[in-house]
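User: Predict structure, ligand coenzyme A.
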Amino acid sequence: MDDYDEVIDMLRITPGITVREADSRSSTNRYLERNPGLSFVATIDDYIVGCVMCGHDGRRGYLQHLVVKPENRGQGIGKALLTACIDSLQQVGIDKTHLFVFKSNSLANAFWESNGWILRDEVNIYSYNVSSNKNA
Ligand SMILES: CC(C)(COP(=O)(O)OP(=O)(O)OC[C@H]1O[C@@H](n2cnc3c(N)ncnc32)[C@H](O)[C@@H]1OP(=O)(O)O)[C@@H](O)C(=O)NCCC(=O)NCCS
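Assistant: Predicted complex:
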């Protein structure tokens, strides 16, 4: 949580990433407490240049908000963050992980496919929102 402000500022200015109410300070604190040791930041000279959030439901892993600052891309930082998540999930017994990407985020879709992630075109995602907040 010490890194929250720096990370959320980075997420907000990254095209393709949508920050929602679920990314509020209290929700993020709850997420990190439920998923200890599974989310990471990458730093250079104490400045955050990348982040990833990761968790699991006891059955499958879920990965979100993998971001590297534009000026630091193409140096293996994204891959290192991703590997840290997958390795940590495997250590707690989770072998398979899902993630959600906007179809319009062509950069991210190309990244996942080139890193061996399988596009699941046989699955539909359904969501249900009990809140009146459309950005929950
Ligand atoms: C996606 C992102 C995190 C990649 O970070 P990065 O640090 O540049 O990635 P890396 O340098 O670690 O690249 C790892 C590998 O992916 C490949 N790769 C990187 N970006 C790629 C792209 N846009 N398309 C295809 N392959 C890509 C690299 O060539 C590298 O391959 P290699 O291991 O064979 O050398 C970064 O571009 C980003 O922050 N994008 C915006 C945020 C976003 O959309 N995130 C995804 C949300 S789900």
